[in-house]
Amino acid sequence: MPSIPPLPSFRTPSRASAPLPYIPVPTARAVVDCGVYVDGKRLPGHYGHKQAIAEVRSRGTGFVWIGLHKPDAAQMADIAATFDLHPLAVEDAVHARQRPKLERYDDTLFLVMRTVLYVPHEMNSVSEIVETGEIMVFTGADFVVTVRHGDHGELTGVRSALEAQPELLALGPGSVLHAVADHIVDSYIDVSEAVENDIDEMEEQVFTPNNLVTIEAIYQLKREVVELRRAVAPLQIPLHVLSQSPDTPLPKEIRRYMRDVADHHTAVNDRIADYDESLSELVSAALAKIGVQQNTDMRKISAWVAMAAWPTMVAGIYGMNFDFMPELHQPWGYPVVWSVIVGGCLVLYVNFRRRNWL
After folding, report:
1. In whole angstroms, what is the distance from residue 134 CA to residue 71 CA?
2. Which of 88, 149, 167, 319 could cross-link 134 (Cys pair, CB 3.0–4.6 Å)?
3. Nearest residue to 125 (alpha-carbon basis) of 208, 220, 224
4. Taking a C-beta distance cutoff of 8 angstroms, is the pair 181, 248 a contact?
5. Coiled coil: which residue ranges (predicted)?
6. For residues 25 and 47, is the Cβ–Cβ distance under 8 A?
7. What is the distance between the alpha carbons of residues 344 and 113, in angstroms, rounded to a whole number?
8. What is the pLDDT of residue 341?
9. In 10 A of CB 122, how many CB atoms?
């Protein structure tokens, strides 16, 4: 029988897996908004970042405020070349996950702040409660660049509120820095109040009789408070420097506004520290409640075991079937043994009830 030739293969030859080529994305894709402000008012029209800074410098007054959302390295490099940003700060702005800090590069300030968002949840569920993100702010003599990472912390409302107060915008880029910091600290206050409500509700459940609270839920809430504290607490030093140090390139009036923001931050930071201590005490109380409940359960089990042991002992004695056990040959033997068993169990039950073991 003739052999059948193999069918031709239509598969393309396999290639070694190589990384996909990088396709540059225009910088405009990362720009949320870009505005030119002169004498506290926004100029009409749409500007790219290069046209905006050229307009300001040709006028010799005003500043540019450009907002970015999750820019990549190429997009951020384009912005850095336009506004002469330091490479170290640009690298931090791209990679994110930075600790709140304040750095100065000549006349440019670089402020990193963490944003927080309260996530609604079920009380006894082990789920995320506080979501974090980041906002970086570059401020120079004639520009502000805000870089946002995360799906929350939008600054659209901040920009609209500032544009409604031209007397503040007239103070320069420092007014934007103050407004963004004030917005973030206000969000800290809102989130801390929501977490406080969770702690109060958790405390009520822990101290409510016959109400079982999972210790995992308390640990989860404590972990989220620790995450909140890590986002909030490090900002204290940068705000202190911005509000107190005359060496920063901020107008005196802006430093006064920053003192108010620093005061609010100190209050919320102290409140979060109290939450951490309260949850530690709540964990101890919950563990003590679990221990008391376990002791109660063990007493009940021991009481029932003792009552079961009495008839077992009696039945075991009379189940030996020795010939010289006179009760076995008496007509009253069976009811008497049952009376002894029931009577002994009743005595044990009454005693355990008096001692609150049952």
Report:
1. 13
2. 149
3. 220
4. no
5. none
6. no
7. 73
8. 78
9. 8
